[in-house]
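Sample entry (396 residues):
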Amino acid sequence: MDILDELFQKMLESRIFKNREALRPDHVPETLPHREEQILKLAGILAPALQGARPSNVFMYGKPGTGKTAVAKYVLRRLNAKVGDKVAVAYVNCREADTNYRVLADLSSSTGVYVPFTGLSTAEVLRRFINGLEKEGKLMIAVLDEIDSLVKKSGDAVLYHLTRINEKLSNSKMALIGITNDLRLTEYLDPRVKSSLSEEEIVFPPYSYEELKDILEARAKEAFYPGVLNEGVIPLCAALAAREHGDARKALDLLRVAGEIAEREGATKVLEEHVKKAQREIERDHVVDVIRTLPVHSKLVVLSTYVLERKGVREITTGEIYAVYRKYCKEIGVEPLTQRRVSDLISELDMLGIVNAKVISRGRYGRTRRIRLSISEQSLKEGLGEDTILRGLSIA
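Predicted structure, serialized as tokens:
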């Protein structure tokens, strides 16, 4: 038996997890402790759907990990069980679909209408969505989760259209549930959008230490075999998450990762030391690991961007980065790549989330990319600090 077979066999024989999916943030359990008030309020708002009427739009806000998404999915699941296919539910995560086009495309696909990834105008995608909705002839309840990501990146134009879509519908209806982590999001919204979207509002306060303990105990019964968790594991996970503004997602992640560490070690119980290891693993800056493993030319491009930002250059372009990059190549004695190849490296760094390269139009002068760092100075210094080749470079 080779080393991989041993590892897989150990996993198969593990008696730690009964159902690890119960600890995932997207798992919606049969009960949601300490959110009864919010569940009842949302259910009351959506109840007209039982009679085929359009419910009010509702805005749900609170800090991350306070149960907003879980409550929305829980109530909609129960509603669907009552009305069957008379109500269609569409769920869009606006952190992933963070443009007006992508939001409308995702909503269209929920009505069975295909929209290409790019290539159409937003107005055309909206028209296709309306046609798809009319063809379905149903009430649609659309959940726009992490709506703050959409508004901050692309504005609130799509929200304006969606909050007024019922004026264009004759055979169907639509209601919106907006979910945000940003308590001040309404300050960024057009007053007309704000009044239409926020017909009803539900606030989610952070969980207390005792409430987090109850949540973890309920999930642990689903997730672990009996007697696997040491007595102090759940209190420690709850205490660590309570420090993070009562974030239940953080508490569940800690408990799950602690269980996975115990499983990998071949332990029969999950101990407090596994929770501490889990905390270190979760809090480790993965950006630092990515920067450490970058090829030297990519590191020089990142460093060049940082230096230009420090100098106060407002609009950093590929050409400006390339000039600094060539200087650093000369200092460390490596052959510089072509400007075209450096431009490709910038695109790769953009995909990794290390820089943000936004294409902007300069009118008759064409288009260019405005480049900024997307990581903290501390992560940058930590990631580049161990590279002996880059030591001694002048970054003034």
